[in-house]
Design goal:
Shape: globular
Low-confidence stretches: 1-6
Radius of gyration: 19 Å
InterPro entries: EamA_dom, EmrE-like
Oligomer: single chain
Helix content: over 70%
Largest sheet: none
Strand content: under 5%
Mean pLDDT: 88
Number of helices: 12
Protein name: EamA family transporter
Keywords: Membrane, Transmembrane, Transmembrane helix
Family: Belongs to the EamA transporter family.
Number of domains: 1
Organism: Ornithinimicrobium ciconiae
Length: about 290
């Protein structure tokens, strides 16, 4: 179906149940992340990122049919920066999944957009919420309860780096959105990211990338982590305020913990669950007030 005409069924759903579409997108992303954790032992970080970005690029290019010609130099600079940020974010996040449960990794990563929103808001209450979130991260990372010799600081650092790239991704996503129609910018960025990842992925995984099971998992990740949520969020944002959208996105750490439990049989200790609850609460305070003008 052409992006010019759209899908009337999804459009109707967006008008009637935009909240459900965002919740579906949140669950889709996190279950895609859990599926990615099962792919990492087969093709490694670079191979997994390549498959996700490459297959997602193919899907979006076919469905969106982006316009390539007539772009200015600044358009290409913007979308290339967006593509490299997206790629780096995925590399750091997938590398963290080799060391941390997905619920822990996503909660730490979520500090990136939370800090970005707090800094741009410049509200004292948001600063207090960030401190609450930092306490939550200390609890979920078990820094306060586990001997340092047993801590995986590399995994924590990778998740934090992914959060930093996530914040940059949000900024560049907005700039890309002002220069490209609909999902054009995302589709083009995925193509650029796939080209950049191709040598790393091939060198890292080799012929394993062509295995049927690997390709099937990669397709599932591309659908769950990219094509489906991007489309659902784009439709839902036509009907939702930025504040409501931010509150719904704040549920991502909880969705990640659920995906980790159901797909990977990963469980969190009570203090880690408390830490996650603190981060989610802080995120609701900060992100839930975007666009309210208060």
């Amino acid at each position: 179906m052409s992006r010019r005409t759209g899908d009337t069924g999804l459009t109707a759903a967006a008008q009637e149940h935009p909240v459900l579409l965002v919740l579906a997108a949140v669950l889709s992303v996190q279950f895609g992340g859990a599926l990615a954790a099962t792919l990492l032992p087969l093709v490694g970080v670079f191979g997994s990122v390549l498959l996700r970005i490459l297959l997602a690029a193919v899907l979006l290019v076919v469905l969106v049919r982006p316009r390539w010609r007539g772009r200015s130099r600044q358009d290409w600079v913007t979308v290339t920066g967006f593509a490299l940020t997206l790629t780096a974010m995925n590399i750091c996040f997938y590398a963290s999944l080799e060391r941390l449960p997905i619920g822990v990794a996503v909660t730490i990563e979520f500090l990136g957009p939370l800090l970005l929103a707090a800094v741009t808001s410049r509200r004292g209450r948001d600063a207090l919420a960030v401190l609450l979130a930092l306490l939550g991260v200390l609890l979920i990372s078990e820094v306060l309860s586990v001997p340092w010799a047993r801590m995986d600081f590399v995994g924590i650092g990778l998740a934090a780096a992914a959060g930093g790239f996530w914040a940059a991704y949000i900024v560049l996503s907005g700039r890309t959105g002002t220069r490209f129609e609909g999902l054009d910018g995302m589709a083009i960025a995925l193509v650029i990211g796939a080209v950049a990842m191709l040598p790393l992925g091939v060198l890292g995984a080799g012929s394993a990338l062509l295995d049927g099971d690997v390709l099937l998992r990669g397709l599932g990740i591309a659908l769950l982590s990219s094509a489906i949520p991007y489309s659902l969020e784009l439709l839902a944002l036509r009907r939702l305020s930025a504040g409501v959208f931010g509150v719904l996105l704040s549920l991502e750490p909880a969705a990640a913990a659920l995906a980790g439990l159901l797909v990977l049989s990963q469980t969190l200790a009570p203090l880690q669950v408390l830490g996650m609850a603190l981060v989610v609460s802080a995120s609701i305070v900060v992100l839930g007030r975007r666009g309210r003008g208060t």
